[in-house]
Design brief:
Keywords: DNA-binding, Phosphoprotein, Transcription, Transcription regulation, Two-component regulatory system. The chain is of the alpha/beta class and about 220 residues long. Helix content is about 40%, strand content about 25%. Strand 4 and strand 5 (about 55) form a beta hairpin. The two termini are about 25 Å apart.
Length: about 220
């Protein structure tokens, strides 16, 4: 799962990235223009958004997301603790507001909450076909057996399930699991390898394989 940190304080941005990197793929934008470029060109599960940026107001990023009909979860992180900013941010589509300073553990908990609401129907554990997917522990279980998934495999499965019954292109998958580095890949062979390993681990557990390849288009996870 992919997080964008929009924060001009370099030390804070890097501290957040270091704390979250074991759970999520993270990217940093330290000013308004780079944040704008990223949200227009890439998709994220959650965006951590500072209001006060050196070259613009972070709330305008919310307006851009709304205009583009994008559905990222948004948590405003700002030292500006005025009620007006908080209300305006929530009215523009933010999911949460966390004033600075904050504990990184609380930020992580709020990110998990936003992602659960956005991708897992508000549940900690999502039951899909034969599988139990725990959004907090980031585990997948068939009956009483845990699947030994890597973080990338879990993120890939969660991404496909959040787009259940829809065909997801290879380029969208590459972007989701590799971020803005995806544009440097010559081909999508690495996606095929992750899909192959994920399908094998699902079927080896005894669960049925609902992860389907759609020739020339991409992949989808069928849910009945």
């Amino acid at each position: 799962m992919k997080i964008l940190i929009v924060e001009d304080e370099k030390f804070l941005a890097e501290s957040i990235q270091e704390y979250l990197k074991k759970q999520y793929q993270t990217e940093i934008a330290q000013d308004f223009e780079s944040a704008k470029e990223k949200v227009l060109n890439y998709d994220y599960d959650c965006i951590l958004l500072d209001i006060t940026l050196p070259d613009g107001n972070g709330l305008n990023i919310l307006k851009i997301l709304k205009e583009e009909n994008k559905t990222e979860g948004i948590i405003i992180i700002s030292a500006k603790n005025s009620l007006d900013d908080k209300i305006l941010g929530l009215e523009l589509g933010a999911d949460d507001y966390l004033p600075k300073p904050f504990h990184l553990s609380e930020l992580s908990a709020r990110i998990s909450s936003v992602i659960r609401r956005r991708n897992f129907d508000g549940n900690n554990v999502l039951k899909i076909n034969d599988l139990d997917i725990d959004a907090v522990a980031k585990t997948v279980k068939f009956k009483h057996q845990f699947l030994d998934l890597t973080r990338t495999e879990f993120d890939l499965l969660a991404f496909l399930i959040s787009n259940k019954n829809k065909v997801v292109s290879k380029s969208a998958i590459a972007e989701h699991i590799s971020g803005d580095q995806a544009e440097f890949f010559d081909n999508f062979d690495f996606i095929y390898a992750h899909i192959k390993n994920l399908k094998k681990k699902i079927t080896n557990s005894g669960a049925r394989d609902f992860l389907k390849s759609v020739y020339g288009m991409g992949y989808k996870y069928e849910v009945f």
